[in-house]
Amino acid sequence: MQTKVLSVKMYVLGEWVSQEETFEVVDPQNNEVIARVPKTTREYARKVIDGAAETFYSISSWPTHERMKVLQRAADYIEKNHERYAYTIAREGSKTITEARGEVSRAVQTLRISGEEARRIKGETINFDQKEGSENRTGYYFRFPIGVVAAITPFNDPLNLVAHKVGPALAAGNPVVVKPASVTPLSALLLAEALDQAGVPRGFLSVITGAGRELGEELVTHPEVKMISFTGGVNAGDKIIDKAGRKKIGMELGSNSPVIVLNDADLHDAVKSTVSGAFSAAGQNCIGVQRVFIEQNLFDDFAALFAERTKELQMGDKLSEWTDMGPLINETEAKRVEEWVNEAVSEGARILQGGKREGAFYEPTVLVDVPVSCRLYYEEIFGPVVLLEEVESLQEAVSRANDVDYGLQAGIFTKNIDHAFYAVNHLHVGGVMVNDSSDYRIDEMPFGGVKQSGLGREGVAHSIQEMTEPRVVCIKLTQPWSV
Q1: Reading across the β-sheet that carries 22-27, which strands appear in turn?
Q2: Residue limits of the Aldehyde dehydrogenase domain (predicted)?
């Protein structure tokens, strides 16, 4: 039976609005149209940003206790509607229903953390009398909201990655204008629904939908946008930097995440963790495992067990409780992954498992002997493909792990604390997970990378620091301190 196609409105400055022109949202599993969403223009986006800025300047302050309550009520609303949110994530994107439920739970946590962190936006006193002649001065600094935040979000975590930008922005007292990925806008609009029900003040949140090239241009260049928070590809990130001018920028731009498995590792734990880290969300995960470096005495056993466990993964209907992996976000992406794998095979790589495509589905794929000249080796695959490589030592593994222009997160499996700390100190990444694969994350930790992997850090408290500015207050007293 044909699914009923939803007609969805945008959330703009406290109102749910339509547009004359719309675009379709499709389920990548079967190309079925599931919704029609407003397709807005750059001119309209400009008016939205102007309205958000007007709201910011017209409200002298949004009290901390009110920000906390709104964020906690929004988390409560999502929790009460947990299955509806999960179903939406699964239908419009690549995640299985099980993975989607996990994302909803994380989004609830992100909003709750944001509400808690709102109370912890603090400053410090300053000892002005450290300078001679300033004995009669005292003061402090506090943090204040910067103004309109533009949030440009990707398709792979269409609810929680939006919450990671909206939650801290609102906690800090900033209006935020969200441009979600055009292939997965419904989850972002559901987040707006939760915050609307929670009582977010008019003008503090807008979710606008439409073409990224058109709306993104306005969000990046509009003078009233004071910070851009972007998650996406390196090329798009570079264009934003070129056009943004004097704005604060926070970016997470992906990775090519390595995991190191040493001879003393727990073999079964390492295989289980890295298989999950490589193929969750069909490999469309910025911290997903892409390269695994295994010490030579363990390599054959690891590779055999890894391929066997990969073969056991169930690929199919996203809404089935038994499915481990769904499709990629569209057939174009699946064809790109197929092209990269075929290119590697033509240059000498061997496929241990997988390597076949059907529509938007691409089998979880394991390769060995991938030449370092292949795109699959040095670029982000963003698909269900992992490379296994034999190394002679920890030092070689670290050197090869660093030999790409990305550095978001890495993992290492070892029982030797000295080896673990060697990796911690020498891997060029934003995070090292010891006895976990690279894709482990909690929503409060600082999250971000080095090299092409981004600028700044997310994670609620750290995002709030980026979305506020310090203001110094110095008071010259008319009477000296001493009596």
Answers
A1: 6-7, 32-38, 22-27
A2: 16-473
